[in-house]
Design the sequence.
């Protein structure tokens, strides 16, 4: 368990993966397609929220309101006051929420790590570990199709 895992992307992707493998990693790294030590498709590094928490913090610092739909208060109501935001809204409505739940199930519950409301806040209680979990799935496309088509 950790507090952040973005640095794993580069070492995992370039150093330890065999040729032509798909890697799906939940935390801060998304799907990757590899050939040898070169990423030939893409690495998708994203959150399932509409915006990054940093945008909320910036609006707080600047004393500005945020667009409706970025975050919710303790009752789950959408707010425009960044000081009332306790949780970020997911992108994509119910479908985006479903994707965020899957990420949480795989990288939290399945890993025996903190999940949902049990994950510590990134910028509070800095002396406490956040207990984030990570999920890695490696798929060899040759098990499913001829690699010249993949």
Sequence:
């Amino acid at each position: 368990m950790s507090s952040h895992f973005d640095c794993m992307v580069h070492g995992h992707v370039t150093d330890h993966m065999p040729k032509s493998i798909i890697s799906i990693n939940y935390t801060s790294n998304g799907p990757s397609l590899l050939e040898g030590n070169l990423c030939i498709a893409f690495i998708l590094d994203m959150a399932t929220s509409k915006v990054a928490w940093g945008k909320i913090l910036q609006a707080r610092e600047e004393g500005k309101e945020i667009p409706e739909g970025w975050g919710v208060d303790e009752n789950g109501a959408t707010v425009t006051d960044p000081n009332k935001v306790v949780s970020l809204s997911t992108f994509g409505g119910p479908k985006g929420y479903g994707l965020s739940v899957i990420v949480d199930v795989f990288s939290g519950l399945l890993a025996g790590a903190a999940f949902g409301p049990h994950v510590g806040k990134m910028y509070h209680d800095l002396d406490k570990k956040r207990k984030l979990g990570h999920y890695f799935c490696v798929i060899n496309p040759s098990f499913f199709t001829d690699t010249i088509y993949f």
In short: The longest helix spans residues 93-109. The longest strand covers residues 22-26. The radius of gyration is 18 Å.
